[in-house]
Amino acid sequence: xxxxxxxxxxxxxxxxxxxxxxxxxxxxxxxxxxxxxxxxxxxxxxxxxxxxxxxxxxxxxxxxxxxxxxxxxxxxxxxxxxxxxxxxxxxxxxxxxxxxxxxxxxxxxxxxxxxxxxxxxxxxxxxxxxxxxxxxxxxxxxxxxxxxxxxxxxxxxxxxxxxxxxxxxxxxxxxxxxxxxxxxxxxxxxxxxxxxxxxxxxxxxxxxxxxxxxxxxxxxxxxxxxxxxxxxxxxxxxxxxxxxxxxxxxxxxxxxxxxxxxxxxxxxxxxxxxxxxxxxxxxxxxxxxxxxxxxxxxxxxxxxxxxxxxxxxxxxxxxxxxxxxxxxxxxxxxxxxxxxxxxxxxxxxxxxxxxxxxxxxxxxxxxxxxxxxxxxxxxxxxxxxxxxxxxxxxxxxxxxxxxxxxxxxxxxxxxxxxxxxxxxxxxxxxxxxxxxxxxxxxxxxxxxxxxxxxxxxxxxxxxxxxxxxxxxxxxxxxxxxxxxxxxxxxxxxxxxxxxxxxxxxxxxxxxxxxxxxxxxxxxxxxxxxxxxxxxxxxxxxxxxxxxxxxxxxxxxxxxxxxxxxxxxxxxxxxxxxxxxxxxxxx
Length: 586
What we know:
The protein is mainly alpha-helical. It is built from 29 helices and 13 strands.
């Protein structure tokens, strides 16, 4: 993301040169740094507020890349707090901003010139007319944050306003960042235009797997058979990674996915590379061995496409506790001591939260040569009856079931490692259980969701993740209404906190919900870390459309996401040669 970069400051530097030239002996540079290509000096002033806030980079000498010192912190024992009041009138709409003197005068040459001829307590007033500028809360926050020293993200929906402000108020450094943003955007758009035919072909394949169902099965088969991608090794690689990722986007159709791949392999001929489809899916699953794919791995193992020997090699190499438990019958044959070790881990103070449940059920799961374990694994679902009722969005059956039991609408269902979506629940649940209302959101079950919602089930703060993963617009609109109610009755302390949609954007990228990715981007002030993570998740799970959208919004490919990885690192691990050619040439 190309942004107006910031440094986080708790107490600003002291003993720094002031533009008023007061007592130069007491004003000195307190920090210098250099890089192989740049030398630069940071200044601050001893008369700025002591309280914590964000402050813009001030540089003297050659300008630097905005990403060189992203995490620098500076401190000062300063106690002064010189402030100014700015009265900006945008197209007749007045905005009053109280901000640090140093921020205002450093940002804007116009403000600096004004105060060089007026006393500090004078209100700076400016009437600004911008063609087609519409005043909104977002535009106010943008301007307010700019002059308060907060981070401002340059985006397609605000770049024109920022350009106008930077020109009128003489904010030259902002103009520099805007120019960088527009240059990068132009480069990406140009490359996409040159490769539009291939990109469209890849997007069509993504759509085929995303929307796979009983009704679309025949059409999906025909679209893939008519695709040019099946005629080259690189094209087959692209289909393989997309098919595997679709088990995350569309977990309820994994059985159909396997059947589609088997059907396509029957059409192998000298004119295509479909004979490589099943072997490449099998080898890719083993090379990644991602718990998100555990049910798909099992299906290929159960059908004999992954051998006992290769599965055991992967288990030994990756040493993943979840995969050990999921493939416990095979692990026990491989090495009985591993199961004993897992039981030992369950007795430790620090252990995976889900492990206790598995260990408690181990005697029953292990009985009769792991009969129950194998049955639950083959089904790929949580074994509780109410889970399947929610999955089918059967409101009548749900109400019948609830009438026969003393039911609490806040009931949380224990997660099961045999559920094909277990890894999602494990990552997003605060405990080993998931509230039923979150399950209705995840499984795109609006009838059941509304029943829980109307009956005042507790709405968890992170339910947006589940709702975005499910992708149901009606459910998301209800959650928005919930947030509006919290705002309206904010003095009612009995109300829960607002739902945070910010982290949900990375889920939209992972789960191929690109309509929601775009909506979240436009609707909410998403922070930069979650934006970077969205690009990474889109790359990891073969969401080309999501990747391109993030890149076109200016998300920085060098930045680090929530989980400590960069887009470049993840892209290198999981992309195909064909996709690398498209996205990295520019």
